[in-house]
Every structure is written in structure tokens, then in C-alpha cells.
């Protein structure tokens, strides 16, 4: 697992500086609920997750929803103490880990606490990540009744040998069944895929894309595999047991995804995300509003062990292990262990880094002079869209999306 960032100690009462809520009325507020439990830890994963045998004594999945609900109430009390204006939640996202390892009634209880503490905006998006093996029709009955609007399914691949390398344990044939159950109850369905796994051929990737499209989802996320230090997969690659990830292979697979998804009516709205008109909703309505809140630098409160939060330039993060997290929440203290206040230069870097990834692009007027001077060269290289630049916006081309990090560096003059 990654180490937590360095920062200043976070106050035990969670108090926020006045500047972090001064513009709250102009900004949306989202809630992220981290469920840190998994049945099996996948070899590529470096998220803050735990199997039950890793947790030891004193931690029970049965009580987790109560602790998460307690932190939701604590969050509201901190914002009230800072005199932040009340804001109904723009979005709620249950991620992990595997949220659906918890009974759906417990996820619903946390959502009800969020509704009671903050309220939900009339068009609020509420998403639950789901493992296709850990759901039943009754799961979606409960979630839909509680106000969940979409489910994000961790499919990753439809090819058994690719799933084996990733150490994903779900059965591929369970995916269409689970997605069907969700759609029958009126829930939006997003499918998450990973490409570039060692040993995955282009034909394998095309098989996974075809299988995802057969599910008739309204949203697809496709992420290139990143091998993180400290994971089992990184160790296997280092020992030569598994081949290295090939960036050229990943680029070819990204472009294949773009072609097939576009042909199926999807449009990209962020480098790794596509949505389409489906099930009575437009492509814009089927985007992930929660993730867009991150890319647009809005405010969010992260609930749970290791969760990160942000309020207008102030960022903080919770203690990682569930046991001390539980102790702090039950004592009425903030579970945050570190905090940082972003300076103007850091906020500008993040503005460019995040904003260039989305379809709306970056307004050229928000770039510093060195960034504006770089635009002509990026257009000449085929990485930025020329007509969009003429209307005042830096938008990535298809080739530019493959080079988003390089585009960012040039806009920042690094």
C-alpha cells in the first residue's frame, strides 16, 4: 500500500480554517465513503483495503456502517463550526475495497445518514461500486429503494487468463447477470475495464470491449494498468515471472477502445471515461458527476480509513488502518492524521493537470503566459485541437489523450 503524504498534523477536532469555506456557496460538495474490505486482495491493487485475516482482533465489518455514519455526522458538525453555508450533496460515491461485501441495508443506512446530515441535491448522483460476485437481485432492490442511482461494476476483463494475472476472483459469466439485475431496477450501469495487463493480447482486449458493450451500459471506464511499487504484481515482474507492461501496447489498446466505443455511440468526456445516450438519459447525464467533481476541483469529504478530503485548497487524509480509525470516530475525534494547505502554485499545477483531461478542456485565459505560448506547438504536434483553441480552449486530440502527461508538462513549462 502507498504511504500517506507528508503534511502538517491534523487537529483532533477537525477544525477547518475560515478560508477553506469562504467560497463554499459557490462550490459543490460531494461525499466519498470508503469501504476498506475485500474478500481477496488482488495482486495489482495498492488501495487501502484489507481482507478479514489482515485486520486482526478489534475490527468487525458488522460495525463499520455505524462508524462511517458517525463520521458523516462529525463532518457536518465541523462544517457547521466553520460557519460553512449548508450545501446539499452533489454526489455520493461508495468505493473501496468492495462496498457490496457489506449488506445493502448497511450501505443504505450510511446513505440515509448522509441525507439526514446534509440532504441530497434534487439531481444528486449516488454510486455504489460492486463486485459481480457479491450481489443478488435483492441487493439492488435495497439500493434502488435507498436512493442509489448508478452502480459501477468492476469487470476489468472478460478473459480468464487476464483475470488470473490480475488475481480478480469474480466469474466472468456473473457480470451480465449482475448488470441486468441493476438495470431492471432502473439503476445506471457503468463498467470498469483495465487494459495492458501482462500477457493480454490485442485480441483479448477486443474480446473484453465487445463483452462490455454487450452489457448495454451507459458508461465505460477503461484504465491502463499501472504497476505500483509494493504490490504482488510488481514483485512478480521484478522476478521475471510476469512480463513488463508495454506502453506501446497500452497505447494501441487505448486507441482500439476509442474506436470501438465511439462506434457504439459513446463519447469521451475524460481521458479514461466514456458515456452515451442510453436508457432515457443523455451522454452528459450519464457521466460520472462524482469524478467530475474531482477533476473540476470542487469540495468533497472522504469517509473511512485512509480517505482523503478537500475544501477549497485545504486537503486532509484519514488514518489508514480501520482499528485506530474506529477508536477515533467512536471517541468523537477527527480520524484525520495529516493536512496541507495548497499554495497558489500548487493549485495552478493541479488546475492544469486535471482540467486538461476533460472534454471541455482548459480555458486558455486561465493559463499563465508560458502555457499560452506552448499551445501553438502542441497544436502543430497534433496533441491539441486547433479549432477549439481558436475559440479559447485547450482540448486534447485523440493522440493528445495518449500524451496527456506530456501536454501537461509543456503547458506548465516543465
UniProtKB/TrEMBL annotation:
Name of the molecule in the record: Heme chaperone HemW
Family statement: Belongs to the anaerobic coproporphyrinogen-III oxidase family. HemW subfamily.
Main subcellular localisation: cytoplasm
Annotated Gene Ontology cellular component terms: cytoplasm
Function description: Probably acts as a heme chaperone, transferring heme to an unknown acceptor. Binds one molecule of heme per monomer, possibly covalently. Binds 1 [4Fe-4S] cluster. The cluster is coordinated with 3 cysteines and an exchangeable S-adenosyl-L-methionine.
Keywords: 4Fe-4S, Chaperone, Cytoplasm, Heme, Iron, Iron-sulfur, Metal-binding, S-adenosyl-L-methionine
GO molecular function terms noted in the UniProt entry: 4 iron, 4 sulfur cluster binding; coproporphyrinogen oxidase activity; metal ion binding
Entry-linked SMART domains: Elp3
Residue ranges constituting the Radical SAM core domain according to the UniProt record: 23-267
GO-annotated biological processes: porphyrin-containing compound biosynthetic process
Subcellular location: Cytoplasm
Amino acid at each position: 500500500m502507498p504511504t500517506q503524504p507528508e503534511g502538517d498534523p491534523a487537529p483532533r477536532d477537525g477544525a477547518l480554517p475560515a478560508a477553506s469555506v469562504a467560497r463554499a456557496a459557490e462550490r459543490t460538495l460531494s461525499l466519498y465513503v470508503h469501504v476498506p474490505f475485500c474478500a481477496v486482495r488482488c495482486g495489482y491493487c495498492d488501495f487501502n483495503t484489507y481482507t478479514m485475516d489482515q485486520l486482526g482482533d478489534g475490527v468487525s465489518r458488522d460495525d463499520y456502517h455505524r462508524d462511517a455514519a458517525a463520521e458523516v455526522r462529525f463532518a457536518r458538525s465541523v462544517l457547521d463550526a466553520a460557519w460553512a453555508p449548508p450545501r446539499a450533496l452533489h454526489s455520493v460515491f461508495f468505493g473501496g475495497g468492495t462496498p457490496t461485501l457489506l449488506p445493502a441495508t448497511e450501505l443504505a443506512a450510511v446513505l440515509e445518514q448522509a441525507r439526514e446530515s446534509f440532504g441530497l441535491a434534487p439531481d444528486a448522483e449516488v454510486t455504489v461500486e460492486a463486485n459481480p460476485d457479491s450481489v443478488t437481485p435483492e441487493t439492488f432492490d435495497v439500493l434502488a429503494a435507498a436512493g442509489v442511482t448508478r452502480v459501477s461494476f468492476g469487470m476489468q476483463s472478460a478473459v480468464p487468463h487476464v483475470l488470473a494475472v490480475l488475481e480478480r476472483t469474480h466469474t466472468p459469466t456473473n457480470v451480465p447477470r449482475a448488470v441486468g439485475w441493476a438495470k431492471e431496477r432502473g439503476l445506471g450501469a457503468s463498467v470498469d475495464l483495465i487494459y495492458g495487463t501482462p500477457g493480454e493480447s490485442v485480441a483479448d482486449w477486443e474480446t473484453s470491449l465487445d463483452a462490455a458493450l454487450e452489457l448495454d451500459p451507459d458508461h465505460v471506464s477503461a484504465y491502463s494498468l499501472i504497476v505500483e511499487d509494493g504490490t504482488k504484481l510488481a514483485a512478480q515482474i521484478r522476478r521475471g515471472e510476469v512480463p513488463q507492461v508495454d506502453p506501446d501496447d497500452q497505447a494501441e489498446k487505448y486507441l482500439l477502445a476509442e474506436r470501438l466505443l465511439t462506434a457504439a455511440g459513446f463519447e469521451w468526456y475524460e481521458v479514461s471515461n466514456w458515456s452515451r445516450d442510453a436508457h432515457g438519459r443523455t451522454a452528459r447525464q450519464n457521466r460520472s458527476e462524482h469524478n467530475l467533481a474531482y477533476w473540476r476541483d470542487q469540495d468533497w469529504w472522504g469517509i473511512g480509513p485512509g480517505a482523503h478530503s478537500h475544501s477549497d485548497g485545504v486537503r486532509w487524509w484519514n488514518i489508514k488502518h480501520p482499528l485506530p480509525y474506529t477508536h477515533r470516530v467512536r471517541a468523537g475525534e477527527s480520524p484525520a492524521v495529516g493536512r496541507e494547505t495548497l499554495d497558489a502554485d500548487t493549485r495552478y499545477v493541479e488546475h492544469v493537470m486535471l482540467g486538461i483531461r476533460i472534454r471541455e478542456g482548459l480555458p486558455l485565459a486561465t493559463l499563465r503566459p508560458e502555457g499560452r505560448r506552448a499551445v501553438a506547438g502542441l497544436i502543430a504536434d497534433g496533441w491539441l485541437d486547433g479549432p477549439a483553441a481558436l475559440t479559447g480552449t485547450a482540448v486534447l486530440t485523440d493522440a493528445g489523450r495518449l500524451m496527456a502527461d506530456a501536454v501537461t508538462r509543456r503547458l506548465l513549462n516543465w
